[in-house]
Design a protein that fits this description.
The complex is a heterodimer of chains A (about 425) and B (about 350).
Chain A (H helix, E strand, L loop, with lengths): L54 H8 L22 H26 L13 H10 L5 E3 L5 H6 L4 H9 L32 H14 L6 E6 L6 H12 L4 E7 L2 E2 L2 E2 L13 H5 L2 E6 L3 H16 L5 E6 L19 H4 L6 H11 L5 H23 L25 H17 L6
Parallel strand pairs in A: 1-2, 2-3, 3-7, 6-7
Antiparallel strand pairs in A: 4-5
Helix pairs in contact in A: 2-3, 2-11, 2-12, 3-9, 5-12, 6-7
Chain B lengths: L13 E3 L2 H15 L3 E5 L15 H5 L4 E3 L4 H14 L2 E5 L10 H8 L2 H4 L9 E6 L14 H5 L5 E3 L4 H13 L4 E6 L25 E3 L11 E4 L4 E5 L2 H13 L3 E5 L2 E3 L3 H11 L2 E4 L8 H13 L8 E3 L11 H4 L3 H12 L2
Parallel strand pairs in B: 2-3, 2-4, 5-7, 6-7, 10-11, 10-13, 13-14
Antiparallel strand pairs in B: 1-8, 6-12, 9-11
The chains are: A alpha/beta (about 425), B alpha/beta (about 350).
């Protein structure tokens, strides 16, 4: 029988006790902000590998940052997607519409018209560029901050507002938390409040598309915070193993509610760098540069469609507002962070680019903003005719028991009858 | 919706199968009938599964439709949900029910809820097959019966066959069902029915009731219990392996018991249970799973709520103990003839 290792004489007796490291963000409320530690390369410097390249050729890019739009508002370098001015204007308008929509819905929540809202302020470029770079029938498995994709695909604002108000016209019958849209006809999967579950689902959808010899691809989005979930690893493993035609996006907006990106591992390396560990292609882009995002998404979509496999894209951006209407970011981070963000605002950057091209003007922009605000206002008014949350204009009671199963089983039938009885007791005059 | 089996089924050519063969046959038939059916799971491809349930299927239907997966149950169920959203009808295998927990979020929060939260836009028509239950010296990680975790979830169906005939017909019905189905296969009775007397020789299925399986397509509808044996003195409500144990114990005791094999827990055939208890006035619920918050608690409550004025004795439940399934003391855990016998004696003492 072995006697085991000798326990004496090891140098550890002289070491200090172990110490748990808990990450701490650089800045807290009231702090001045210094972003000089961020490595932000000049636009146009990075090479653009062929879309069919070995995955390893992309790995240097995962530690760098693809940028197209420079401080001089010009688009430069091999990643410049060379979009025509009409497309650029459409993308600008869609970003601005998304922001106008967010602003109005946020106010609607504050006015008590609904329970909850989540803005995508500062992150609009990611959704809108992705929607434009993909085919309209490619399948999106979104997280909760990709409303820009729905808007870019032409989903009616009024339907979105009906959902946010959980009113009687809500296509989801008032069952989901506001902004958890589902729009199958628009290639937009039902949003889950359980984070990152959509990531392996997107891979499964892409696998199915490959099984069927289809040409459509899938894409999915998680925040950097929920990239810590096991589902992320499951998705990356399955995507790599089956060479699935999928584009997996990490929207690194620096904050997961009050937890900074360090709690998802950002102090060690980039999120894009995880691609190398799974042996798949990876890109890291300036998420506030809509041309860079478009170029990366187009690259990855072309690669997937050519059966060359999955790509992980990290979109480096900043969550300019709170996580949702339920939190106050001034309680945990410096207000200077958003103001001083070195990658600017995606709408302003595209606007200035178009102006530099001679294809846009301040006057046109102001007119556009006014028009979009009116458009949102009109949609809101229409939707409000169908009711707002808590004012009685919801779907009929019995719909609560539908769609649990395809058919209503006896126990739900009995419970539905009880719900009707309860209502009759509380509101004898009620008519549906 | 429920397609009744044709009368001519009894005349259809049939052969003796064990439960593995019956499951394999059901998968084979559904793969051939529906090009959207795909099978995925750990070791299910070339090797044909650790219990051989998918043997030969990859060779017959190709690697695109029958394939091995990474050891990642979250990924298996998550990918299956995505495939279902595409329009496929995946039949993932979780190698042991004890391994299903990493996939629980994808089952509970996703598969079970898609139809509801999308108001019918997306559904998860997946059938998760998984061997469950003890009695094979599997220790605590290859013996569990976690069915109550799933019956607790709105939107999931839970199905458990007790014979080869039912295994094939129920699996075909589950695969065709448009809701997610957890299909637990009692692995102790894969090769032969088990009467609970572990110290007696085991018997193969051949020649025993439920082992003659029609060739070709047929369905056993979900939500329809099977009266294994009619009786007037006592109603026994059970499922899976315990159907056979109950049968043997009550035969030995000479009790005129009516034994009901539920076949599916959700949807539950409460009518058959109610009618029987109204007739017998006594009820014994048996399952192998742990006791506290087990499905037996639900059954006892339902019987109490719906049949109280017909009852002549307290409803009894016999279950596994509230411990992990111990390896060396497997038979001390298992709700065998002694434990069942005691409960029957209490019920029949007047």
């Amino acid at each position: 029988m072995a006697e085991g290792p000798v326990r004496t004489g090891k140098p550890r007796g002289n070491l200090p006790p172990l110490d748990l490291y808990v990450p701490e963000p650089r800045y807290r409320p009231g702090d001045t902000v210094d972003y000089s530690h961020l490595q932000i390369p000049e636009p146009g410097l990075l090479a653009r590998p062929d879309e069919a390249c070995e995955a390893s050729e992309t790995w240097p890019l995962t530690l760098d940052m693809v940028r197209v739009l420079g401080d001089d508002d010009r688009a430069v370098g091999p990643w410049n997607p060379h979009l025509d001015p009409e497309t650029l204007r459409r993308m600008l308008a869609t970003m601005a519409l998304t922001r106008a929509f967010d602003d109005r819905m946020y106010r609607g929540q504050r006015q008590g018209k609904t329970s909850f809202y989540m803005k995508s302020t500062g992150e609009e470029a990611i959704s809108i560029a992705c929607a434009h770079a993909l085919a309209a029938d490619d399948m999106v498995f979104p997280s909760y901050r990709q409303q820009g994709i729905l808007i870019a695909r032409g989903y009616p604002l009024e339907e979105m507002i009906n959902q946010i108000y959980s009113n009687r016209a809500d296509r989801l019958k008032g069952r989901q938390l506001p902004i958890m849209y589902s729009a199958k006809d628009y290639g937009f999967f039902t949003i889950s409040g359980n984070l990152a579950t959509q990531f392996p689902q997107a891979v499964g959808w892409a696998m199915a598309s490959a099984i069927k010899g289809d040409t459509r691809i899938a894409t999915s989005f998680v925040g950097e915070g929920s990239s810590a979930e096991g589902d992320f690893h499951a998705a990356m493993t399955f995507a790599a193993v089956y060479n699935a035609p999928v584009v997996l996006n990490v929207v690194n907006n620096q904050w997961a509610i009050s937890s900074f990106s360090g709690f998802a591992g950002a102090e060690r390396t980039t999120f894009a760098a995880r691609a190398a560990g799974y042996g798949i292609a990876g890109l890291r882009v300036d998420g506030n540069d809509i041309l860079a995002v478009y170029a990366a998404m187009e690259w990855a979509a072309n690669r997937a469609r050519a059966n060359k496999g999955p790509t992980l894209i990290e979109h480096f951006t900043y969550r300019a507002e709170g996580h949702s209407t339920s939190d106050d970011p001034s309680a945990y981070r410096s207000a200077r962070e958003a103001e001083d963000w070195p990658l600017g605002d995606p709408i302003m950057r595209l606007k200035k680019h178009l102006i530099a091209l001679g294809e846009w003007s301040e006057e046109q922009h102001e007119a556009m903003d006014r028009e979009l605000a009116e458009q949102v206002k009109a949609a809101t008014k229409e939707a409000e005719k169908n009711g707002i949350l808590g004012h009685g204009l919801h779907h009929p009671f019995h719909t609560m028991f539908e769609d649990v199963f395809e058919e209503l089983p006896w126990h739900l039938q009995e419970q539905a009858e009880q719900a009707i009885r309860e209502r009759q007791t509380k509101w004898p005059e009620w008519k549906e | 919706m429920i397609e009744e089996n044709p009368v001519s089924l009894h005349d259809a050519p049939s052969r003796s199968m064990n439960m593995i063969e019956a499951i394999n046959d059901a998968l084979d038939i559904m793969m051939a009938r529906d090009p959207d059916v795909v099978i995925m799971g750990e070791d299910v491809g070339y090797f044909g599964g650790v219990f051989r349930a998918t043997a030969g299927l990859q060779k017959k239907f190709g690697k695109n439709r029958v394939f091995d997966t990474p050891i990642n149950e979250c990924g298996i169920i998550g990918a299956a949900v995505g495939m279902a959203a595409y329009g496929l009808r995946p039949v993932p295998e979780i190698q042991f029910a004890d391994y299903i927990y990493p996939g629980l979020d994808q089952l509970v929060s996703e598969a079970a809820r898609l139809r509801y939260r999308s108001a019918g836009e997306f559904v998860a028509q997946i059938t998760v097959r998984s061997p469950f239950g003890g009695g094979i010296f599997g220790g605590q990680t290859h013996s569990q019966s976690p069915e109550a975790l799933f019956t607790h979830v709105a939107g999931l169906k839970t199905v458990i066959p007790a014979t080869p005939y039912d295994a094939k017909g129920l699996l075909i019905a589950a695969i065709e069902d448009n809701d997610p189905v957890i299909f637990f296969e009692p692995k102790r009775i894969y090769n032969g029915p088990f009467d609970g007397y572990y110290d007696r020789p085991s018997r193969p299925w051949k020649g025993l009731p439920g082992s003659q399986v029609p060739e070709g397509y047929y369905k056993v509808p979900l939500g329809k219990a099977r009266v294994v044996r009619e009786g007037a003195a006592l109603t026994v409500v059970t499922y899976g392996t315990m159907v056979h144990v109950a049968e043997a114990v009550l035969a030995e005791k000479g009790v005129d018991a009516e034994i009901i094999d539920l076949r599916s827990l959700v949807p539950l055939d409460i009518d058959t249970v109610e009618k029987s208890v109204e007739k017998t006035g006594k009820c014994l619920v048996i399952h192998e799973a742990t006791r506290t918050s087990g499905f037996g608690a639900e059954l006892v409550t339902l019987v109490q709520e719906r049949c109280f004025y017909h009852l002549e004795a307290p409803v009894e439940r016999v279950t596994g103990f509230d411990t992990p399934y111990p390896h060396s003391l497997e038979w001390a855990y298992f709700p065998g003839p002694v434990r069942i016998g005691e409960a029957v004696d209490r019920l029949m003492k007047d």
